[in-house]
Specification:
The structure holds two protein chains of two kinds. By secondary structure, chain A is an alpha/beta fold. Helices cover 39% and strands 26% of the residues of chain A. A six-stranded mixed β-sheet of chain A has the order 6-7-8-3-9-10, with helices on both faces. A four-stranded antiparallel β-sheet of chain A has the order 2-1-4-5, with helices on one face. Chain B is globular, with a radius of gyration of 19 Å. Classes of the chains: A alpha/beta, B mainly alpha. The interface between A and B is medium-sized, with 30 and 17 residues.
Amino acid sequence: MSPKLLEVDSIEVFYGEFQALFGVSLSVDKGELVALLGANGAGKTTTLRTISGILRPRRGRIIWRGKDITDTPAYKRVEMGISHVPEGRGIFPKLTVYENLRVAAYTKRAKEKFSESLEMVYNLFPRLRERRNQLAGTLSGGEQQMLAIGRALIQRPELLMMDEPSLGLAPKLAREVIFLAKKLRDEYGITVLLVEQNVRLSLKVADRAYILETGRIVMEGTPEELEKNPKVREAYLGI
Amino acid sequence: MVAAVDLLASTVDGILIGSIYALVGVGLALIWGVMEIINFAHGDYMMLGALTAYFLYLAGIDPLVGAVAAFVVVYALGVLTQRAVINRILDAPLLTQIAVTFAILLIIRYGVEAAFGPYTRRIASWYANVYYHVGPLTIPLPKLIAFIVSLLVAAGLYIFLFKTDTGIALRATSQNRVVAELMGINVKRMYDLAFGIGVGIAGLAGAILALFYPIFPEMGAFFALIAFIVVVLGGFGSVFGAYLGGILIGVIESVSALFVNPALKDVVAFIIFLLIILVKPTGLFGRGE
């Protein structure tokens, strides 16, 4: 059996003395769309940041294509195909839209295909083409989210991790951005790990989901399984 | 009454000397902008550049070639400093950072004095005493050369920061170092570049200043002070704001010498600086955060 694309093996992550994750394990297979769900402060962002290498676990391992990358710096993980759309989008406000996209092609992996990727992103988000020479800080929230996702696509990821892409967006846009995750998987073959608070919508697009509570995975399963679970219905779906 | 021709001559002279202040300030602004480190030793890297050009001049190398070498030598020393020291204090408290860069200042300044003596040295290039007469103005060639070199460096820096992948990555790093890392940028490498280029430009400024200015171990003190003013005036972290700030300080200094005792010309510049900062705390070209 070939190894999973990504395996997170019982990671424990601390901020100083404060422990945020208590042995979180999860895996993502090639071609899957996996959702990581939970309330504010459950540790979703910490999990993503540990996978992308911004944070180091005190214990546990991150395995990428069967290889231990726990000690690999974040910038090298991008070259390996792991892209992370950070919480709050993290666009560079004083770079233009085009410069934001260009800087995403900093890796060798992305640079070779930059013009092709740029065309793809502009076609996916025509707004970005119109505003390419505008400073990114002047974009609306929805446009900034498009830019943040566009930047990740420029990186030519194998695994795209999106941290609460719907946060702060109007309901219609929030829905669009979550369905975009599915479109990217279905049409572009990108494996997606989606972190969301919007459980209802995320379960509509995901193949599998994990539920994180105060630093521990408390449930996992297919959307059908989770939707039937009385605890999930009460705590996350409000039924 | 001040004659118009004197005013013009002072303004031109101010622009020429201001172009040196501008370069020193630009380097400081670059380091601050990317790393949020206040480099107190900045003027001493400038002195190292001047000294490099001087020793090469003694070996028979033209000071202009020496200026390029000064950039390379000081750049390398900057990268060395970055890796050995600055990288370890990036997240340290502000006072620690200040103490550390101040220690670097002392090591460089008095290390040079101990090694080469406290002497004042001069570069006597073939063009040291060439003057151009333009209408009523007399322009010394060394200052004109300094001005042209300064403009070329500024243009080169602009092209680097705005037109190259590495330059855009450097600007991205200055705006958000965590996200820069997520773009695949090796942020430590960007810090090497920022510190190296920042002090390298100061070194180059020192070398071209030495075309018409004496070289001595403490020469950096005054220029570092000017550089701080220039950076604040330009809007902290704005590289090209610092450039214009440098020219402005040069002109204020030079023109005010017509009206007050020349010994007070720097005082006037500092007073005007304080007034500007009172009215616009983000600096002339800063937009605040």
